[in-house]
Design a protein that fits this description.
alpha/beta; 14 strands; binds zinc ion
Length: 261
Amino acid sequence: MDLVVLGCSGSGPGPRSPGSGYLLRIGDRAMLLDLGNGALGALHRYLDPFRLDALWLSHLHPDHCSDVSSLVVYRRYHPYPPYPPCSRPLPVYAPPEAPERLRAQYAASARERAVEDLSDVLEFRPVSDHWASESLGAALRARRGVHPCESFALRVEHGGRSLVYSGDTAACDSLVELARGADVLLCEATWPHEAPGGGPQPVGVHLSGREAGEHAAAAGVGRLLLTHIPCWYDADDLLAEAKEAYDGPVDVVAPGAVYRI
Ligand SMILES: [Zn+2]
Ligand SMILES: [Zn+2]
């Protein structure tokens, strides 16, 4: 598998990166992990969005799904599609609220929302805790994380290799269980362990750099990739925290980086 970082800026796009989006090549198949602000534009550099085989949405915060509206426009109105889009709606693995949430995001008025459902170009497949599927020639598994809205981590296994993507989550056993023994953990690290000015960070929202390292160590993963760092924090600080807790290889991802899993 190959993981291409399209966007990795936490909580919204920043000056150096779009919001969250990762292209995962699984053999000759292509799966997109999240589609945050600006990630669709970056995807075009690597793959015609018509060539996607599936979209995974970890959760429905805008920095992970705001470009879905643009993807709908692309698939619905492109004048020269390589195949009739309505004949092959794109599978979208996402929390159960995705159809309602993305319809509201796409349709600007109550009149439009009354008739819009996106099902001509997207095929929603709801994810739940302990969800599992054999798709795209890979074994997919999900666990629910801890976040203000329902958010899922994903494990992808193919050809004897494994990747786990945390989505957005606070500290939780489910991520450690899902990531157990994985070759690579792509893990959010949104803030320093101690809040600026001192004291703890908000409970139940995100991981610190230290917590990302602790989860990687507890799961015994082979490599840790830190992501979802907002533009207002110094990535080097969060990297240093993670390295104190995890003695394996750790990197901070950047747009355009490609990782062989
Ligand atoms: Zn986020
Ligand atoms: Zn979020």
